[in-house]
Amino acid sequence: MAKKVVASLQKGEGRLFTKCIKMVKADKSDSYAFQEEIVHNDHIKDFFAD
User: Is the residue at 35 inside a domain?
Assistant: First the structure.
């Protein structure tokens, strides 16, 4: 059943978006957190630049 979902994402507009994950350091503590976002392919560099 998962194959049908994956196959439907490869058709149409599903290929225009990418899931991006970056590591962000917290201001008050020395810990890191992960920020996940689904970004349009044209805005990937903007996501990682911030």
Answer: yes
**Phi and psi at residue 6, in whole multiples of 5°?**
-65, -40
Q: Which position has the token pair 């994950």? A: 21
**pLDDT tens track for 18-42:** 899 999 998 888 899 999 999 999 9
What domain range includes position 50? 16-50
Q: How many domains does the structure of the chain reveal?
A: 1
Compute the distance between CA of residue 25 and CA of residue 9 in angstroms, rounded to an integer: 33
Radius of gyration, CA atoms only, the chain: 15
| Nearest-5° Cα angle at 48, 44 to 50 | 120
pLDDT tens across 2-17, in order? Answer: 455 555 556 666 678 8
